[in-house]
């Protein structure tokens, strides 16, 4: 049994058994605990869950989107990645230029109203097509504001300049590996209330070099355990492996520290189903040679021997 995956399953059990019921921004309701940490040894295998199939290509394209400093979902759509669609779509349907059917509370309505769901799918397809093919529309409604890619690569300073945090931290790892300042933050208090489609859930990460290995610790203020956290684990493990390779280091640990760790109430049955499954061997990450992570493409990242249980679908809370 994978020690890495068992930590995640233990978290699921802990929240189901000990979590408090809480209201939330989406009006879905959660079961939540506060403060939890998991450690993943990246030498053991790549920590992509096997108790349900997790679409690795979505993790790769999203991470490359962050690394590029991009904030427009067009890049994701071009790579058949739709995981950020709802936030951009919400921006469009709440704008004065939207003239279609009422999309209020679409995230919950599609779960209970099949007729509305058909209308929603039609409107979403119209939106996706416009982002892909209409430059002006994409610029206005496909952009999510100062989300992860912007904060990582173009942090705005008080004097109007920008800081490339990711580039700087890679340089620092190479030139001063023992530093305690290998930190990238996405939480910008000025941008949170006014210029972000979704305030960063994974807020800050720090790298640590020891014995020729690169480790990373993430602080995540809010973790959707069933849908989001499996992506976050794999994404930051992949980021660690990519940076380690550029810096001539081996991957060490990924340490995942969670603030509000929660299971949405409409994910409880799915979590229980997943807990009935036996974990399988972790896959192996294969990276092609590259000089800089900023030059890495989709084809440069592959998985070997990923043989998970079938996927488990669940609605996303927007």
TrEMBL record:
Locations listed in the record: Cytoplasm
Family designation: Belongs to the thymidylate synthase family. Bacterial-type ThyA subfamily.
Enzyme Commission number(s) from the entry: 2.1.1.45
Subunit record text: Homodimer.
Reactions this protein catalyses: dUMP + (6R)-5,10-methylene-5,6,7,8-tetrahydrofolate = 7,8-dihydrofolate + dTMP
Amino acids binding dUMP: 25, 180-181, 221-224, 232, 262-264
Primary enzyme class: transferase
Claim: rRNA processing is one of the keywords in the record: no
CDD domains: TS_Pyrimidine_HMase
Name assigned to this protein: Thymidylate synthase
Any one Gene Ontology BP term: methylation
């Amino acid at each position: 049994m994978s020690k890495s995956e068992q930590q995640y399953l233990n978290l699921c059990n802990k929240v189901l058994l000990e979590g408090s019921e809480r209201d939330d921004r989406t009006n879905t309701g959660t079961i939540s605990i506060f403060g939890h940490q998991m450690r993943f040894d990246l030498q053991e295998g790549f920590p992509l869950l096997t108790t349900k199939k997790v679409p690795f290509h979505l993790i790769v394209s999203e991470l490359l989107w962050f690394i590029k400093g991009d904030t427009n979902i067009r890049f994701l759509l071009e790579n058949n990645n739709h995981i950020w669609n709802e936030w951009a779509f919400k921006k469009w349907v709440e704008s004065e230029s939207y003239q279609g059917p009422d999309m209020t509370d679409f995230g919950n309505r599609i779960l209970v109203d099949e007729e509305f769901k058909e209308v929603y799918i039609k409107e979403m397809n119209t939106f996706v097509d416009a982002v892909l093919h209409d430059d002006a529309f994409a610029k206005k409604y496909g952009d999510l504001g100062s989300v992860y890619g912007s904060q990582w690569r173009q942090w705005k300073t008080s004097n109007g300049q920008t800081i490339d945090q990711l580039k700087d931290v890679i340089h620092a790892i190479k030139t001063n590996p023992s530093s305690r300042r290998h930190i990238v933050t996405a939480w910008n208090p000025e941008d949170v209330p006014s210029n972000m489609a979704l305030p960063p859930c994974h807020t800050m990460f720090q790298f640590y070099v020891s014995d020729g290995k690169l480790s990373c610790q993430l602080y995540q203020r809010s973790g959707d355990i069933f849908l989001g956290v499996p992506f976050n684990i794999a994404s930051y493990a992949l980021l660690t492996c990519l940076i380690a390779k550029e810096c001539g280091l081996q991957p060490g640990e990924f340490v995942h520290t969670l603030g509000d760790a929660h299971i949405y109430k409409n994910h409880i049955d799915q979590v229980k189903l997943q807990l009935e499954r036996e974990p399988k061997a972790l896959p192996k990450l294969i990276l092609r040679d590259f000089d800089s992570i900023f030059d890495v493409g989709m084809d440069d990242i592959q998985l070997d021997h990923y043989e998970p249980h079938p996927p488990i679908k669940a609605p996303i809370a927007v």
